[in-house]
Amino acid sequence: MSEEEINNTLARICRVLASIPSGHVVTYGDLAAMAGFPKGARLAGQQLRKLPKDTKLPWHRVINAQGRLSLPEPRASYQRELLQSEGVSFLKGRIDMAKYRWRP
């Protein structure tokens, strides 16, 4: 991929990421598909890793397809805190996708 394509990909993913409402989550695959990259879950994860640490984008609203957090500690605890502060609850380490998954 050229640098221009990489920047375009990140911009598309960031636009979708910015639109996820508080109290909802999407999977990496959902994020990629909404940005125009079906079957691009890994691509979405790679792009999210490129976000600056102080980003205002709601990166914490992206989880894996099993309804679990994918980040290693201590980032997973921080992600859990952010989601819980928005009203998202966990049961045995999972988020109820039927209740919290965002489908625009």
From TrEMBL:
SUPFAM superfamilies: Methylated DNA-protein cysteine methyltransferase, C-terminal domain. Signal peptide: none annotated. Keywords: DNA damage. Residues 11-88 form the Methylated-DNA-[protein]-cysteine S-methyltransferase DNA binding domain. It comes from the Bacteria. This is MGMT family protein. It comes from Microbulbifer echini.
